[in-house]
Specification:
- The complex is a heterodimer of chains A (314) and B (304).
- Chain A has 314 residues and is mainly α.
- Chain A contains 13 helices and two strands.
- Chain A has a two-stranded antiparallel sheet.
- In chain A, a hairpin with a 2-residue loop joins strand 1 and strand 2.
- In chain A, helix 5 crosses helix 7, helix 6 packs across helix 10 and helix 7 crosses helix 9.
- Chain A is flat.
- The relative contact order of chain A is 0.15.
- The model of chain A has no long low-confidence stretch (mean pLDDT 80).
- Chain B is flat.
- Chain B is built from eleven helices and two strands, in the order αααββαααααααα.
- Chain B is mainly α.
- The mean pLDDT of chain B is 80.
- Chain B has a two-stranded parallel ribbon.
- The chains are: A mainly alpha (314), B mainly alpha (304).
- Chains A and B meet through helix 1, helix 5, helix 6, helix 10 and helix 11 of A and helix 5, helix 6, helix 9, helix 10 and helix 11 of B.
Chain lengths: 314, 304
Amino acid sequence: MMAYALRRLLGAIPTLFIIITLAFFMMRAAPGGPFDSERRLPPEVERNVKAAYNLDKPLAQQYLIYLGKLAHGDLGPSYKNKDFTVIQLIATGLPVSARLGLSAMTLALLLGSLLGIVAALKQNHWQDYSVMGVAMLGITIPTFVTAPLLTLVFGIYGVSLFGHELSLPVGGWNGGAFANMVLPVTVLSLPQIAIVARMIRGSMVEVLRANYIRTARAKGLPTVRIVLGHALRAAALPLVSYLGPALAAILTGSLIVEQIFGLPGIGRYFVQGALNRDYTLVMGVVICYATLIIALNFLADMAYGILDPRVRLS
Amino acid sequence: MIATGQTLKAVAEIKGRSLWVDARRRLARNRAAMASLIILALVALLAVLAPLLSPYAYDEVNYDIIACAPNWWPAEAACRAPGHIFGTDSVGRDLFVRVLFGARVSLAVGLVATLVSLLIGVLYGATAGYLGGRIDTLMMRLVDILYSLPFVFFVIILMVMFDRNFILLFVAIGAVEWLTMARIVRGQTLSIKQKEFIEAARAGGVGPFDIITRHVIPNVVGPVMVYVTLTVPGVILTESFLSFLGLGIQEPLTSWGVLISDGADQMESAPWMLLFPALFMAVTLFCFNFIGDGLRDALDPKDR
């Protein structure tokens, strides 16, 4: 197990390295710089400013300086938000995005698996078709369509449920209040619920055909017991390897959701930073995202190794 | 039974059925896939004939009829625009012709970007699968590493850098999707390499180029085709994602993504601006998905 973990860890470090390098050179290679849109500075002042931010040195040297600072946990100052360093901005935004993303992932995994199991158990019946139909809707309709739609229905017009008026706030974070989180988390998780449902249904259908499941049924085990105790463990394997891409998709989706619902997360910083050419902010956010994804991938690999011994013993 | 001349002739007249004929029949029986093909052909036809189908140009601004509903709109609307089947948008352009031109762009992006990802993926995957051994392991390790990177971020950075260049958009979006294509092609190449009929062909003296073209490629094409039809909706969605962030097609050209994001802003006051492009896009994406599923079922009956 340790050897497997070590191998996976050694694979993760070059990945992070590649991402940092890619992001650095892409941002630096962009035409235009971070100070272009402001007033023309007198040349001496401009030179001093550039020297202060190390922008006058050759590119390779800038890269090494950046790596060095990174090793000390210094992501640099934000070029546009002059009062803050990148670390500070990320620190304010990360808890918001993390909560949003984690809630969406959990919802996607739980609800998606449930729907997938139901569809698999009732394969080719109406439950199967309706779940797969709704799943198709979830995948094809983009988040920036479902967001305004759901906002309109639940936020602005309101829905009356059993005589009670149900109206959700349409934006703002409000310190993470539950009511404010409902719409964003739902919108963000819808595509993933659909994908997880399809995936679980597919693998569950195959697993349920296996001989040991037939034996369990012949022995008279109730279906719930069969599914939870035997089938799910085998069927969940493709899901575990999908966790990494799922998180990537949720982070990507959070860019839009945070913009539409006005949530103060790091997705918004990324978009603003990219449009403003705020090099350090964009790179800081990319590194942050990359670290999260790589960490989750590592955990997912560990989980896969635990669930399927064939992988770690190969 | 001793084969007489008559039985031999009878046997010779029974035509064998190839894999493709079988698959085509199974696909034809899949009603959802067939309906999707017809609808898709219709949408493509509308897109191609776009300029001929409406008296208005797609960039013809008319400030008298800003955000007006079509005449047949059943609900309350601030103003009506006679002669505009889908109404007008926020600067008075005809929505119908814009949706059709958006279809052109979105379908073009879908096809070209998918082609790009197909090319990159096939080259990469076939090379890895064919060479095998350590090179294969290294190449696939790289794919694994890249697999969970949120490519979209790099695409966003690219689009900002090069100021929304049209060609770059296609290439960048295609580059987002090549990984799975490479994996599929490599997997198929590997499994084909081992088959006995390849060995038999080699033993029979068939040259390597002929083996590749007449035996390897037809067997690789199946799953690749399935994945191609399933990549196109993903590409169209990525393009609309970029358009929403303001990084997609430049004005006055439009795509469904741009139309939808404009319509989403005006959803309360002018819902037709969101409804029609969203409907077209959803229907097209559904069709591609159904066709892809149908192809997958047709080519691999085990999956049912």
